[in-house]
Amino acid sequence: MGATIVPTTIEINDELKVQLESHLKDDETIEDFIGELLSQYESDRTFLQEGYSK
Fold first, then answer.
1. Cβ partners under 8 Å of residue 34, min gap 6
2. What is the SS3 assignment for 31-48?
3. Which of 21, 31, 38, 40 is 20 to 30 Å from 12 by CA-CA measure?
C-alpha cells in the first residue's frame, strides 16, 4: 500500500514570496519550484550556483 500524503501549509513572508516568484518559469508555481529545488538537492546533495565552488 502507498503512503497517504497529507498536505502541509507553510507561510512565507512577502519578501521571500517575491524573491521566489522572480525565479519562476512561465506558469510554474512556487510549489513546483520548491519541489524542483528539493529534487536537485536530493540528487546532487548541493545547490548548484554559477560561480560556486567548495
1. 20
2. HHHHHHHHHHHHHHCCCC
3. 40
